[in-house]
Automatic annotation (TrEMBL), chains A, B:
Membership in a protein family: Belongs to the tRNA pseudouridine synthase TruA family.
Domain Pseudouridine synthase I TruA alpha/beta: 9-104, 144-246
EC number: 5.4.99.12
Keyword Kinase recorded: no
Active site: residue positions: 52
Coiled coil stretches, renumbered: none
Principal EC category: isomerase
Protein known as: tRNA pseudouridine synthase A
Entry keyword Hydrolase: no
Amino acid sequence: MTRWRLTIEFDGAPFMGWQRQDHGPSVQQTLEEAVERMTGEEVRFYAAGRTDAGVHALAMTAHVDIEKPLDAHRLREGINALVRPAPVSVTEAREVDDEWHARFSCIGRRYLYRILNRRAPAALRRGHVWHIPQELDVEAMHEAAQALVGRHDFTTFRSVHCQSQSPVKTLDRLDVERDGDEILVHAAARSFLHHQVRSMVGTLSLVGRGQWTKTDVSRALEAKDRQELGLNAPPEGLYFLEALYPDD
Amino acid sequence: MTRWRLTIEFDGAPFMGWQRQDHGPSVQQTLEEAVERMTGEEVRFYAAGRTDAGVHALAMTAHVDIEKPLDAHRLREGINALVRPAPVSVTEAREVDDEWHARFSCIGRRYLYRILNRRAPAALRRGHVWHIPQELDVEAMHEAAQALVGRHDFTTFRSVHCQSQSPVKTLDRLDVERDGDEILVHAAARSFLHHQVRSMVGTLSLVGRGQWTKTDVSRALEAKDRQELGLNAPPEGLYFLEALYPDD
């Protein structure tokens, strides 16, 4: 048996999310079926993060155990041939030891959220950005974001379906910057709650519109109450950027 | 009557190209039908460039004459609402004088060609790049590209369907650079022949693979013979970037 570490890029649009679902296609199922066709083995993928329906990944990390002897090149090319036409692509494959775990060994996760901030709707970037036509105050958004950085109880910014044991997380970074006609939000933490990034971005968008202040964001955080959330941003602007491991 | 200058972004995937065709949807028809529904007038769009099927535009410039009094904001928002769900978006609209012509007043055109140069196929960028899995020699491509810069008879790099009066064009710039896992080709000229950018990029890809040298590129150019073309690159990597006018 070999444990393989894979780096995976995917467009979230056609999927119900990373995790297997009864009611629609998932990235996990797409990958598992490809490996099962290659090897004849029943396999299971474990990922650093379980993204929602519509959320994209530039470099998701996952692992899978395979009995059949394979080399990294053949595994990667085989999966990429078999997943077609699904928009999933394995960009890297390498052997890791049996103790290594894509989820439990992960010590950091980075997300990017893209807002298209111009009057005109997206054409080339449709499905890949959240379109907000009103001009947003990026400096106010960045300033308000700093109220969320650090160790906090993020209950306000947590989905009711979140399965995390504790709502207390340490947010290492939440930066907001303008890049041409887009506003980029960069988030980094050891781990995130379910819907945390989208909930934070949605709330910051209210600050950008001038409807909320940094004080309102702090108050919502301190309330520890999902009802105090400003807004949950849509999935199509969110990208899982990368997972960090001690051995990297 | 007011002449309107419009800047238009579009995803070329669902279109037969810019120009009206009997056998499928075009960007021109999509825009004309939107304005006709807004105004009740039969209108005609003229563009700086007539892109092929599958070719994208970040900022195509076009003009249209409209009798009905409108302001720029209403025109842009109206078209953007009416073209849906087609991936076309008017990013700017402004009045110009009756002498101004999107095609004939244009003094410069810029194109970008994106090659995804990694083993793994595109996932997020599917339909927006040309995937070449073999590692390309970018420096050799850039060096060979310089053989095409300047005033030449580009018959070799011209579609047999090209309607230009003369095959002689002055290529101002053809730069090749690596940007992460992509190779970007930047092309600038007063005007281009039909298929010229794709023909030049396809030929440079052979240089990148080590199959052709700069001398082969020069020889193909000097042959003034379409049969000597190395390869025509596919449309999905090509973007019309912008059109330049004396008054800008």
